[in-house]
């Protein structure tokens, strides 16, 4: 069992230092997790990390972290535009997201490996990632694409709640808190993310549908694409995820 570690360098950028500790996996994995918002990539990422190591690098988490920044400093103009797009459920510009990932190149070069979640979302981002990985001396092992019917995704997203204080996640049906509206861990208020509200969900799913095919094709051509049906419960989906990772070529660690 590996630790999830502390992703402060990923969340805050190059000025923060990595605080990940614990054993380094014998085979560090370099994976991209693809699939529509709400398909369960974050949940699978937690399970992959516990079993195989690596760090969970979500670009959405970086934007959410910036949105709740309590330092009192105004966000940079590019970040302010990005956060407004996120609130509406729209994609942030390629230039902003690519720059944000490029700044965090040390997270991609890390000895623990990485699971990139939410990036790349467009073909331009996929090309940029190849260049960034080349500069970091890393190669992808696979791009795992999770898929599920849209009706199920909408149900998952619209029932999601998060603790305002500690950010623990819940679901009104699948993972309800002990006391309605209160966090089990810290008793904070449970809230719905702006981008999990119905209008933003529609926009997010539309954004995904219009950009995903070229990205899937890009990885399919390279022989890196693996597909997993994510409509079952998280444990069952992880059984498939584990099989897929175990079958990946046990090439020399890189
Ligand atoms: P997620 O949690 O991955 O669904 O990301 C939340 C929001 O962050 C998205 O709806 C976008 O507004 C923004 N975002 C995250 N990653 C990207 C990306 N790779 N490209 C564009 N926008 C992104």
Would you write up a description of this structure?
The chain is an alpha/beta fold and 254 residues long. α5 runs parallel beside α7 (123-136) and α8 (150-158) crosses α9 (198-221). The two termini are 21 Å apart. The chain has 10 helices and 8 strands. The chain has helices at residues 8-12, 41-52, 59-67, 77-88, 94-103, 105-108, 123-136, 150-158, 198-221, 234-247; strands at residues 29-34, 55-58, 113-117, 142-147, 160-163, 169-171, 190-191, 225-229. A hairpin with a 5-residue loop joins β5 and β6 (169-171). It has 2 domains: 8-148 and 212-247, Rossmann fold; 150-196, no CATH class. It is 44% helix and 14% strand. The protein has a 5-stranded parallel β-sheet, sandwiched between helices. Strands 6-5-7 form a 3-stranded antiparallel β-sheet. Adenosine monophosphate binds next to α3 and α4.
CATH fold group of the largest domain: Rossmann fold
What is the C-level CATH assignment of the largest domain? Alpha Beta
SSE sequence, one letter per element: HEHEHHHHEHEHEEEHEH
What about the largest sheet?
Answer: 5 strands, parallel
Radius of gyration: 18 Å
Number of helices: 10
Given helix and strand content, the structural type is: alpha/beta
- Termini gap: 21 Å
Oligomer: single chain
* CATH homologous superfamily heading of the largest domain: P-loop containing nucleotide triphosphate hydrolases
- The portion of residues forming beta strands comes to 5-15%
